[in-house]
Design brief:
Layout (H helix, E strand, L loop, with lengths): L18 H4 E4 L2 E3 L4 E3 L3 E4 L13 E4 L3 E4 L11 E8 L3 E3 L8 E3 L5 E3 L4 H4 L3 E7 L5 E3 L5 E4 L15 E2 L5 E2 L3 E2 L10
InterPro entries: Ig-like_dom, Ig-like_dom_sf, Ig-like_fold
Organism: Folsomia candida
Protein name: Down syndrome cell adhesion molecule-like protein Dscam2
Length: about 190
């Protein structure tokens, strides 16, 4: 506790973690001869500075459809890691809300690649992240967009990939959105 009454939590080794101090609810109590006031509750949650990795899996998309690339952050760090950009082929940076006719990086960190063709499949895509507490910048391993032909998926086959919004109201099991046909999930 500082002379000003503020409390400061200093970095500590993992073996010194105490749940009653580093993961709890605190209140400040201020008194003078005429009265005492108590602050609203403040939640304190320690973040352990442990090594982490950002994953960026390949996505499978049928030619002409849209690919959705995502950075996969460890669940315990989701509140502290933000995607700052996507890097194409190690040199072209794509930033949030900068839209060309080909890409859109959303504030959520998802990169949408529109109307995928074979040239998109030859590129390497990596996401760049920032740890808000440690200011550590990390770039994921490169991933690829695997472009499939225009064949329809076999009826009853299971689709692989990440969930994506098709029209704002329906969930798909495809790796990208399917603007032309609802059955365009590739394996």
């Amino acid at each position: 506790v500082l002379p000003t009454g503020n409390i400061r939590f200093l970095p500590f080794p993992i073996d010194k973690f105490r749940p009653d101090v580093h993961f709890g609810t605190l209140r400040c109590k201020l008194s003078n001869p005429s009265r005492t006031i108590i602050s609203p509750e403040v939640v304190v949650r320690a973040v352990l500075d442990t090594p982490f990795y950002i994953k960026n899996p390949d996505v499978v998309v049928i030619r002409g459809n849209n690919a959705i690339l995502r950075c996969l952050v460890p669940p315990e760090l989701v509140d502290y890691i933000t995607v700052t950009s996507w890097v194409q082929d190690g040199s072209l940076n794509i930033y949030p809300n900068f839209q060309t006719g080909k890409w859109l990086l959303l504030p959520s960190g998802e990169l949408h690649v529109f109307s995928v063709d074979e040239s998109d499949g030859r590129k390497v895509w990596a996401c760049r992240t920032l740890h808000k507490l440690t200011n550590e910048v990390m770039t994921s391993e490169g991933a690829r967009i695997v472009v499939k032909g225009n064949q329809l998926a076999a009826a009853g086959s299971s689709a692989h990939g990440s969930h994506g919004w098709m029209d704002g109201s329906m969930r798909s099991q495809c790796s990208g959105s399917a603007p032309r046909n609802w059955d365009l999930c590739a394996q």
